[in-house]
Each structure stands twice: as C-alpha cells, then as structure tokens.
Amino acid sequence: MVAFRIIEVELVMRRSINSALGVVQDILDQARSGQVVPTVEELFTAIRDFELIEFDVPDRTDSDGFLFQYGQVNWFPDPTFVVSFVRQLELVDADGEHEAYSQVQLEYRYRVDSDLDSIQSHSSWWFAEGQGPFGGWLESVKQDPVWRVVRGKVPMAFDVSQEMA
C-alpha cells in the first residue's frame, strides 16, 4: 500500500502597489463605526490590518515600511497640526533598480491650539528587516504622549491619500 500525503500550499498573492489606496480605504471602511473620521482605536486596527497585506515590492530591507509622524505643518492656509501614518512601498524599474516610492498616508489634521503648539515634531520608522515585529512597534506608537493630547480634540479633517515620492 502506498501512502500519499496531501500538502496544502497557500499561495500568497502580492497586490499591486497601485491598489494600496483602495485596499486601505476598504480596511478603514470595515474598521469604522459609521463615522466619517475614524477613532484612534479604529485607526490602529486599520493600520494593523493594512500591514498584513503584501504588496509587490522588491525583497529589500527598506522596500516596505511604515512611518508614524506628527507635528505642525505650514502647507495649509491655517496653522495645522498633523498626526499620520505612512506606508512607503518601493517601486522598481524593469531592471530592478529603484524608481520611486509610493506613499499611502492616513492623516488626522487639527487646528493648532496651545496644547498642540507645545508639542515638538516626532517621527518613527518601522521596516520588517531588523526592527522586530510590527506589533511591537505599533504598541510603542500607541504609547506616544501625542495620543493623550489629541484624543480629546475633534480633527478638522481626516485624509487618506497615495502619492509618489
């Protein structure tokens, strides 16, 4: 008698980088409790789920990463404080050489008040290679003092976008 062993193979299909905006918007729609602006908890859930999606990036250490950043910005008509997550995905040409980065951003925008005016800008990157698990990094971001300040504020906007850098 010959024994056969059935092996299940899960094919991981990497998504196109061009689909990243639609992917994160779908994830946000599922995480939101019906509000236009997601709560901080809903945003963290969406970021965690977004990280699980694989995109067609090269197998290099810095080809797929996340940035958490906040601070005052000067490119809006009124003084604005932003808190955002960015997923940066590397695009390469036909020869595998770096061409550009596609950045998918999820951003809260607040009017600058005395609380926000006193906060210094901050940024923190995470890449899969050499920085430990994503969950650990995300947990450290959750502990950032900025969340205590902005949780009691109503954002003037929440924006999700994708652009080339």
Could you write a compact summary of the structure shown?
This protein has 165 residues and is of the alpha+beta class. 25% of the residues lie in helices and 31% in strands. Helix 1 (20-31) crosses helix 2.
Could you outline the blueprint of secondary structure elements for this entry?
Elements: H1 20-31, H2 40-51, E1 64-73, E2 80-92, E3 98-111, H3 114-117, E4 122-127, H4 134-142, H5 146-150, E5 157-164
Helix pairs in contact: 1-2
Structure overview:
- The termini are far apart.
- By secondary structure, the chain is α+β, with helices and mostly antiparallel strands.
- 17% of the residues are buried.
- The chain has helices spanning 20-31, 40-51, 114-117, 134-142, 146-150; strands spanning 64-73, 80-92, 98-111, 122-127, 157-164.
- Strand 2 and strand 3 form a beta hairpin.
- It is built from five helices and five strands, in the order ααβββαβααβ.
- The chain has one domain (17-164).
Strand content: 25-35%
- Structural class of the secondary structure composition? alpha+beta
Spans of 5+ residues with little confidence (pLDDT < 50)? none
Element order: H for helix, E for strand:
HHEEEHEHHE
Strand order of the largest sheet: 4-1-2-3-5
Rg, please? 19 Å
Features:
165 residues, alpha+beta, five-stranded antiparallel sheet, 25% helix, globular
